Amino acid sequence: MASERQFPRNPRLSRRSLLGGAAAAAGAATLTATGSGTASAATTRQADVAIVGAGLAGLTAARDLVAAGKSVVVLEARDRVGGRVVGLDLANGGVTEGGGEFIGPTQDRIKALADSLGVQTFTTYNTGDNLLYKDGKKTPYATDGILGAVPPIDAAGLANAAIVQATLDDLAKQIPVDAPWTAAKADEWDRQTFETWLRANAVVPSAKFLFDVACTSIFSAEPRELSFLFVLFYIAAAGNSSNPGTLERLTETANGAQELRFVGGSQLVPIKLAATLGDRVVLSAPVRTIARSGGGYVVTADGVTVTARKVVVAVPPPIAARITYDPVLPASRDQLTQRLPMASVGKAIAIYDTPFWRADGLNGQVVSDTGVISSTFDNSPPDASYGALMGFIEADEARKLDAASEAEVRAAVLKDYARYFGEKAASPTSFVLQRWNNEPYTRGGPVSIAAPGVLTQYGPALRAPVGGIHWAGTETSTHWMGFMDGAVRSGERVAKEVLTVL
Ligand SMILES: Cc1cc2nc3c(=O)[nH]c(=O)nc-3n(C[C@H](O)[C@H](O)[C@H](O)COP(=O)(O)OP(=O)(O)OC[C@H]3O[C@@H](n4cnc5c(N)ncnc54)[C@H](O)[C@@H]3O)c2cc1C
């Protein structure tokens, strides 16, 4: 049985290995290895609200409930906070992001949270040309064209792509983000995949290629895996209450979701947030059972049992399905969680003495039709004291590598990096890999996805509380679902929801 660890209110002892390098970089939250931070195997706690999951959603919910004077215990399965947001330690003493990393315009809630915690942002490196690698040919292209960063495909493909993009944005405007299943054409859109729709609309092969790459980059899923209604919802959700979502905001670096990064790494946000909650956050405590008892609930985790009036489950839907509920959940809720699988993603980051591609006039961003990595970013720190190339391993390419050794993945990734940036890229000083498909308590990423028929049949069960059990997590958000911002919004929403019934 895993031992329970807690955040002390006045943290003193730094345990870098538990929290990732971001913790030490911040000198922020810390854990005790022994003494007051370690509880015996059979701790019992009582709280107004038990929260399952110390990702951004669960921690934000805890912050708001505590601010409203309620007692909470946050139970986290891992030995760190942040969930899909994690800092990876580098051999050179730096830290890089293994999961959620970028933020951009209209992602107001994650920005406000980071600001409140003193975590600063910097602009993602975007100076110089992008690279298109297609049909064995490398073509640099500007990021500041009239239409933004448009890959140099043939004129017919560009014209077709422009129409497809405008159509997607127009259709997305017809989606109510709080209930996409009520859109007038929801049934029609939810009985086809994005692939089916693209084949009928992105009829020029080079245009289809661009949308295929955009799809794997946004969802880490192939177009054939996604309901068209789900894709339109995701576009509609890429905005806020005063700015409707657009596809461009999802895909762009400047003025888009990849515009900014966090100084010291994104995991600083959940780490600092958890520090404000002190010993209310219990680590290494995977929740196994949520059972109704009297007027409340008994939440049983490894090493700790919490008795609470209400429960917030802030984990991805398919992972929430692995908890035992007593009494069993309504069929609609259980079947929903059986039908929202995690997409497939990994991140590979190669470290170099310098970001040498910058001297070649490149910004480190690639769009490619070849290899295991079809999109990359310059993940170097703000002072460029070393170079970092980050690539996503997505969808079919991720699944192909699930059983590969780390050495095999590294070799495949570096082959791609050398193809894009030259032979220097084949010899990094170090290399880190985060394979989300293999991670317990996430099993994929960046987000749960919906195939045809899921939203229209089961959508209302996404947020509907079941008795005193309330649901949070980025997958429940009406704006920026799938992103850190959506996670924070969901935590804020669920806290309000619980406060109305406490
Ligand atoms: C590779 C990758 C890249 C991404 N890039 C970006 C990006 O650039 N920008 C962006 O905004 N977003 C990005 N995201 C998405 C973003 O990270 C997530 O949307 C967000 O972090 C989700 O937060 P959450 O709190 O909803 O869920 P999670 O972070 O998944 O938190 C859930 C928590 O619950 C815990 N848990 C699970 N089961 C149990 C249990 N039984 N008992 C107790 N605890 C449990 C987990 O360990 C986890 O800590 C990316 C994600 C990935 C994987």
Give the total of beta strands.
21
Q: Could you name the CATH class of one domain?
A: Alpha Beta
Give every kind of bound small molecule, once each: flavin-adenine dinucleotide
Helix content: 25-40%
Which structural class do you get from the secondary structure elements? Answer: alpha/beta
Describe the structure in your own words.
This protein is of the alpha/beta class and 502 residues long. 31% of the residues lie in helices and 22% in strands. It contains 17 helices and 21 strands. The strands form four sheets. Strands 1, 2, 3, 4, 11, 12, 13, 14, 15 and 21 form a ten-stranded mixed sheet that branches. A seven-stranded mixed sheet has the order 9-8-17-18-19-16-20. α5 packs across α9. The two termini are 33 Å apart. Keywords: Oxidoreductase, Signal. This is Amine oxidase.
Outline of the structure:
GO terms for molecular function: oxidoreductase activity. The chain is of the alpha/beta class. It has 17 helices and 21 strands.
Essential attributes:
21 strands; 17 helices; ten-stranded mixed sheet; seven-stranded mixed sheet; alpha/beta; 502 residues; single chain; binds flavin-adenine dinucleotide; Guanine Nucleotide Dissociation Inhibitor, domain 1; FAD/NAD(P)-binding domain
Topology:
Elements: E1 4-6, H1 16-19, H2 21-26, E2 38-39, E3 43-52, H3 56-67, E4 72-75, E5 87-89, E6 95-97, H4 108-116, E7 121-123, E8 129-134, E9 137-141, H5 155-172, H6 186-190, H7 194-201, H8 205-219, H9 228-236, H10 247-251, E10 260-262, H11 268-277, E11 281-283, E12 287-293, E13 296-301, E14 304-313, H12 317-320, E15 324-326, H13 331-338, E16 345-352, E17 362-368, E18 373-378, E19 387-394, H14 395-400, H15 406-421, E20 430-435, H16 454-458, E21 469-471, H17 484-499
Parallel strand pairs: 3-4, 3-14, 4-11, 8-17, 12-15, 14-21
Antiparallel strand pairs: 1-2, 1-11, 5-6, 7-10, 8-9, 12-13, 13-14, 16-19, 16-20, 17-18, 18-19
The protein binds flavin-adenine dinucleotide.
Flavin-adenine dinucleotide is lined by residues 52-58, 75-78, 83-85, 99-103, 286-287, 314-316, 319, 323, 345, 347, 436, 441-442, 445-447, 473-474, 482-487.
